[in-house]
Specification:
- The protein is mostly helical.
- Strands 1-2-3 form a 3-stranded antiparallel beta sheet, covered by helices on one side.
- A hairpin with a 5-residue loop joins β1 and β2.
- α3 crosses α5 and α6 runs antiparallel to α7.
- It starts with a strand and ends in a 5-residue tail after the last helix.
Length: about 350
């Protein structure tokens, strides 16, 4: 196996050069791969050596392109029943950002340095959050390609775009997190159809996707709703009127925004103050940890970490650490009722 430089002159007299990797694969066949940059050729040589020894190498000529891999992955996402808006978001990542930069590349030709260059290009062209989402989509495509056996490894695994904490202001009660009074007014102003969902959102700490797929295990506030809940084959707690999973945007439009407008929880220009259900998840976190919140539980950081499903206590502290007091668990149901001015049924 060797990396060598190849130079030639085109018919128009232009001098060209490239870097060639020549090797023998695990089946004893002679193979070559050509690269514009020496570092990419050397990275590919090292990758090939490892794959050939493991017997899992796929030659460039026998490899599919990134675009082909992306289409296969998108079909799988659709078959898994993901929401249309989610599939369309992923497709936008592919069509607008991945295919123009990497679409023609064959999977076997990809190297970690090539993905690093892709990462840097994304950061130059997009906001950091969007660049990070696109990179995550590419990683998912390559993981799926590995599962299908069309590539030996995911060369994007070690490539990262970390969030820039300096660009993320700390969460603020009244701006990002509803106050106890705002939460009380929102819940009391909500229609009977949506009040149970908003109560659970505020006092279970669930993500919007978890709420929409929630199974029947919450009791007190949901007892009355259970009698009126539309039938659902999946035993969903908050289905649509036809028993299907509710779309996130529909819940925001039908439940959260009208309740805020009715409760006068609005911005100075009269719009609903909190744009998504995640604000109620933030309220739940602040209620768990902060003694200054009406009925606050003053729970330790590790307890809140487990309740929120964060991967690490560092994530919990980074997000909510400035709100943490010291204290122990308390009577949750009574605290919830005090905070909302409600009584469990």
């Amino acid at each position: 196996m060797a990396v060598r430089k190849r130079s030639w002159v085109t018919k128009t007299g232009e001098r060209r050069e490239a870097w060639v990797v020549a090797y023998t694969d695990q089946a004893g066949m002679r193979r070559i791969a050509t690269f514009a940059k020496k570092r990419d050729a050397e990275a590919y040589e090292a990758q090939v050596q490892t794959e050939v020894r493991a017997g899992v190498h796929t030659a460039v000529g026998a490899s599919i392109t990134v675009t082909e891999a992306a289409e296969g992955w998108l079909r799988r996402v659709e078959l898994e029943g993901r929401e249309r808006i989610t599939v369309n978001t992923y497709r936008g990542h592919v069509v607008l950002h991945i295919a123009p930069r990497l679409g023609h590349e064959r999977l076997a030709r990809l190297t970690a340095p090539r993905i690093e260059a892709f990462r840097d290009d994304l950061l130059r062209a997009l906001s950091r959050p969007m660049a990070r989402k696109v990179l995550i989509t590419l990683k998912a495509i390559l993981r799926d390609a590995m599962r299908r056996g069309t590539v030996a490894q995911n060369v994007a695994t070690s490539v990262r775009i970390d969030s820039n904490k300096r660009d993320q202001p700390k969460l603020e009660v009244g701006r990002d997190i509803p106050t106890p009074d705002e939460t009380r007014r929102i819940v009391q102003a909500a229609s009977d159809r949506w009040r149970p969902l908003l109560v659970v959102a505020a006092f279970a700490g669930l993500r919007a996707s978890e709420l929409r797929g929630l199974g029947p295990f919450v009791i007190n506030t949901l007892r009355a709703w259970k009698l009126a809940c539309p039938r659902s084959e999946r035993e969903l707690v908050f289905p649509t009127n036809s028993g299907r999973i509710s779309h996130h945007k529909s819940i925001i439009r039908s439940a959260l925004i009208p309740a805020q407008l009715a409760a006068s929880v609005v911005t100075v220009d009269g719009r609903a103050k909190y744009p998504g259900l995640h604000a109620l998840r933030h309220f739940y976190a602040s209620w768990c940890i902060n003694r200054k919140v009406d009925g606050g539980l003053e729970l330790p950081a590790k307890v809140v970490q487990a309740r929120l499903g964060h991967s690490s206590i560092v994530m919990t502290l980074d997000t909510y650490g400035h709100l943490f007091p010291h204290g122990d668990d308390g009577a949750e149901l009574a605290a919830a009722e005090r905070a909302l001015g409600l009584h469990a049924t």
